Every structure is written in structure tokens, then in C-alpha cells.
Fold this protein.
Amino acid sequence: MGSGSDTSKRQRAGEFALIERYFAPLAAQAEGTFGLHNDAAVLPVAAGERLIATVDTMIQGRHFLDCPPDLVARKLLRVNLSDLAAMGAEPFGYLLASAWPLDIEEDWIAEFSRGLAADQAIYGIGLYGGDTTGTPGPMTLSLTAFGKVAAGEGVLDRGSVAAGDDFYVTGTIGDAWLGLLALRGELEGLDADSRASLIGRYRLPEPRMAAGRALLTEGLARSALDVSDGLAADLGHLLEASGVGAEIELAAVPVGEAARAALALRQLPPQALLSGGDDYELLFAAPPDRRDAVAALSRRLGLPIARIGRARAERGLVVRGADGAEVALEKPGWTHF
Ligand SMILES: [Mg+2]
């Protein structure tokens, strides 16, 4: 695990001490990390396996503001795991590059590392290395996650949707976006339970690892992604990559109770949820002859999987209301830029 060359004086421990105290213990269970004392990581990939890698960066003030440090850590890890789930990969480890503001309290880093430890236990993964440095700018955290698939399994590729395929989505849509509105004080008057539930969905997504893996290994889905920019925008990405269009039934898009309460409070139409972000649910396409198998998977995992529409040869995304009329979307999706 490398260390930045920044030698400016500061109250907290130096970079090597931070690694020793908070990050080396996270690598204790990871095969081949040698206590992080080497210059690079040795990843355990066997013959006949394919390594799947993804990276995401979170910057304080842009991707998170006043969030408990352990939840910042877990979200950073989980958004990456969600990307692995969307490919059908089994996760096993990650690299962490962290740039800490010069005046950060060491307690913040300690709490951050405890968040990572908690999720490592849940997902059965370990830290394989990374980089730790100080920065005069905002806290910047970049995590690279690794998963694997068997060589013969292929992956769930975005560009493989065929006209006639069904589109499905796991869980419920729009909660995280509403959670962000609640944190911004834009859902005053919402009952406490709904508020807590929506904020929880924003701060701590649940990557659909088992579903993604089953969609690949059981040959259920042709194509998948995890919804991070908003259902409409991400569906657009699938359509673009596959060269097809889609027709979605608004009434079939799964909406939770807390989200319904929030929509009613703000007098927002349900299609507003299609433009929210941060769901980290799986959106996937499957041939119509897989409907029973997808329903069986949903029951087996105890995870709602809703069929929301179908792909068609004609390009473009059409969303239809219960009366069959086309529904206009206000904006295609969330953007960080
Ligand atoms: Mg993604």
C-alpha cells in the first residue's frame, strides 16, 4: 500500500501510521496481501476465471456532505459492488485510494474504517491495497472493486438487449432520490418512519449481489445494469448500447410505501421517480420465455422483481400511463456534472 509524499505537519497520525492502524487490519483476511507491505497487490485469480474490475470516486461536497463516516465508507464500497452485481460477478476484494484533508480528525478515519470492516464481513471481501495521502482540497475517496466469473459464464453486457425482451427491475425505485430531498429539507411534514426509510436508502444502498449472480449463471438475463443515474437515464444507456427502443408501463414500476407518502406530500407525479438517482437496483432484460424462472428467482431470494415493459425495434423510450397515453419525463436523469 503506497503512501503520499506529502510531509506537511498535521495533528493526526502520518500516512504510514494511518495505514497501520486503520487499513492494514482490513487486509488481514485477504489472500496474498502480506499485511500490505508490498508495492502492489497480488489478486487471487485462478486459471479458468476472469477478473471483473470497477472503480468509483466520491468527493466530499459533491457526492456526500454531512454523512456519518461509516456510511460514507459503506456507500463507496456498495456502489462498486453494485457495478459488479450488474455484470453478474462474485466480489472478493478492493483497492482504496484516499486523499484526506489536512485538518481531518483521526476519529473520522477510524469510523470510516469501521464501516469498511462491517461491510467486508457482510460481503465476504477484503482490502488488497491502495494509497493514502493528504490533500489541501476536499476529501476524495476512490475505490476499485474486484470480482470474478468463470471464463465460460461470460458477463451481463449492456449491449445485448433484443427487441421483444422483457425489462425488469429489482426492489423499488425512487426511494434514494426522495431520501436526498428529505436530507435537503424538501420533505418537511413527512412522517418519521417514511423519512428514515428514504434517507436510509440514500445513504446505504443494497447492492443486489445474489440476483446479479443468478441472472448470469442461470442464463436468465441477456443484459443488465445497476440504476445509479435514474431509471429512465439508465434504461436509455441500455437501449443506446443495444440499438433498440423500449415501452415502459408507469404503473408497473415498483414504488414503496414511503415513496408514495413522499410523492403525495409534494404532489409529485409517479414519473418523477424515474428521473431520481442512486437506487442501485438492477435493471435487466430477459427473453419472454424466462418469465417463470425470473418469478421463481424473486421468490427464492425474497426480493421483489417487477416486469416493467419490453424492448422494441423502434428506437426511443416511451413511458405509458395506466390509460395507455404517453407520459412525458421532465428530465432524463441525475447527473453529477
Ligand atoms: Mg453502474
Summary: Residues 4-10 have pLDDT under 50 and may be disordered. The radius of gyration is 21 Å. Residues 83, 86, 225-226, 228 surround magnesium ion (CB under 6 Å). The CA atoms of residues 299 and 305 lie 9 Å apart.
